[in-house]
Amino acid sequence: MALNKEKVRRKIIDTGHALIAQGGSEALQARIIAKQVGISVGSIYNLVGDIDALHRLINSELLDELGMVGSGTIEELDQNDVKDLRTRLLALAHAYFKFVEQHQNQWTALLAFNRNSTSAETPDWYMVRLEMLFDIISDNLKDTPLGDDPEKCKIAARALWSSVHGIVTNSFVGRDDAILKSSTLAQIDLLITVFVKGLHADQS
Predict the structure, then answer these.
(1) What are the pLDDT digits (tens) for 27-46?
(2) Exposed (0-12), middle (13-18) or buried (19+): which is 5, by Cβ within 10 Å?
């Protein structure tokens, strides 16, 4: 009986997601996936490529999920007519924190994978997903003093993303603790408060 390639491919990716969620990137092994899916190791390579290619596919779906969380947060803010920039940026930061909290193994594996990949190895479709995350932030900066300069908006968005990301990964990831969680959120609050005040300070 012939394999339904799309269904099997989907099962391979879903199994990879589950393995990383349970044991991090080290758990992503072709032999384990083949056994759980009920196919040969060769079928994995034929349908999705090598383990790095599979990991990149899994990461891209994780980024898509985070992007949907960010877009959903903005949609909710817009529905509630929330205009205040600090409130909007905090909502995005808290949504990011919650996402990382819920996907710690997957997110840690994604970050490690990205660090070990060169620009030449990273396809355009993967980079587009990263850029979309920055765009969610930069879109909220259009009504600030940076609004007349799209490039500055992008730079500010990347700086804010990197700062929040650094706080979360350095202060919380891998050390799930109520006190650390409170401290991490307080650091994010301070960062965004200062960031917003700085945007509206004298630009001269």
Answers:
(1) 999 999 999 999 999 999 99
(2) exposed
